[in-house]
Structures are given as C-alpha cells and as structure tokens.
TrEMBL record:
This is Murein L,D-transpeptidase. PROSITE patterns: LD_TPASE. The lineage of its organism: Bacteria, Pseudomonadati, Bacteroidota, Sphingobacteriia, Sphingobacteriales. Keywords: Cell shape, Cell wall biogenesis/degradation, Peptidoglycan synthesis, Transferase. Gene3D superfamilies: L,D-transpeptidase catalytic domain-like (2.40.440.10).
Length: 233
C-alpha cells in the first residue's frame, strides 16, 4: 500500500469522522463513570444506539428540557428533564442584564462544554446566535448548568445536568459535530398561540413557529437561514 494512498485515506477519515477536542475534567470524568452505565441501560432498553446523534429542545412554560436521540432516519424522544429554574418570564433575552433567558435556535459545539463550571457542569447554548447578533442583542455565557439558581441561564440541578452533560459529551465523542438546541416559550400549536396571543412577544414568536412545526412534521432538527433580520426555514 503506497504512502500516498495511506495519506489520502487518513485525510479522508479525518474529514468524514473527525474526533473533536473535548474539554474535560476529573469532575466530568467521575460523573461519566457513574452516570453513563445507567444511561446506557436506559438507551438500550428503549431501543436507541448509544452513539447516535442527539437533539435538545426546551419549553419554558413547561419547565421542560427534552433530549431526543436519532433512531433510523428520524429523532425520537429519549428523556425529558424538569428545569429547576430560569430567570425572567416568557419572552427572549435581548440585552445583558435584562435577567431574561433566551428563546430561539442555537447550536452547541464541543468547545461550548464547561466541565469546571462554578455551577457544577455547564453547556453554553450559543447566545447570541446569528439572528440575535444582527438585531444587536447583547449578553453572553448563557448556559444550561447545574444548581438551581440562574441569571439568564437554565439551571437543571446537579443530578439532572450530570445526565444531560454526559449525553452531550458522549454524542460528541461518538463523532457528532454539532448539536441543535431549540428553545421555545411553549409548544407552538394553535391552542398555545391563542392562549398567549395577548403577550407583547407574539410577533417574535411567530418567527419561531415555522421551525417548531417543521420539526414536529419531520422529527429532524431544522436549519434556519436569515431573511431580513429574522429566522426563515
């Protein structure tokens, strides 16, 4: 086998299935050693492959964080975690210090993991995203993290973040390059849209609704593009 062929093959493997450089710590490693065997059993019992990609979705009014796992050509719900606390009411974050938690479509990459957070373990949601940057929204370091206190973040308690963080870490370790995280004020069906129609955020929420509906139809994470300064799908 020629040296050129081996070089090309190695380059191909790196491109097709690059191994991410994952931030890690003794704390996170100890958590995985304890939590991952239990999660493996749950995944296997529900028919999921351990290394399959994941998708995360949050609904503020239900205090719910959902973890979905790819099964075949669609994603299926694996587990729902109760959010212990998020700051502010419904309506997205727009500026630093407004004590609001963001709503929108975000992407998590390996570098957004924080295994030495002051809030135990943390995952940066990626606020502000491209749409929010165009709108001039300010603020940063918005996390899904442990404990039960938050200023703009989503606090899950230590026990819940152990599982969520481990699922994210293991998905990256298996080769997933990015994880979609979609945050909604509520389930954006007609009943909820009518119920919250008096809220001043409705014009913004209507820009989220097509992304919500597309996932509900396909059970595949959505990719948005920008039309004007808003989401489009």
């Amino acid at each position: 086998m020629s040296r050129l062929f081996l070089t090309l093959l190695f380059s191909y493997l790196i491109i097709v299935n690059p191994r991410p450089n994952l931030p890690d710590s003794k704390r996170a490693g100890d958590v995985r050693a304890t939590v991952w065997p239990r999660l493996q059993r749950e995944l296997n019992d529900k028919g999921f492959k351990e290394g399959a990609p994941i998708y995360i979705r949050i609904f503020k009014d239900q205090d719910a964080l959902e973890v979905w796992k790819k099964a075949g050509n669609k994603y299926k719900l694996f587990k729902t975690y109760e959010i212990c606390y998020y700051s502010g009411s419904l309506g997205t974050k727009t500026k630093k210090g407004d004590n609001k938690s963001p709503e929108g479509f975000y992407t998590i990459s390996p570098k957004q993991l924080n295994p030495v957070s002051n809030y135990y373990l943390a995952i940066n949601v990626g606020y502000p995203n491209k749409v929010e940057q165009l709108k001039g929204y300010t603020g940063d370091a918005i996390m899904v993290h442990g404990h039960c206190a938050s200023i703009g973040c989503y606090a899950m308690t230590d026990a819940r973040i152990e599982e969520i963080y481990t699922l994210v870490y293991k998905a990256f370790e298996a080769g997933q390059q990015k994880i979609n995280l979609d945050i909604f004020p509520f389930r954006m069906d007609k009943a909820h849209m009518d119920f919250y129609s008096h809220q001043p955020y409705m014009a913004f929420w209507k820009t989220l609704k097509p992304g919500y509906e597309k996932f509900e139809k396909t059970h595949m994470p959505v990719t948005y593009y920008i039309k004007g300064n808003d989401y489009a799908f």
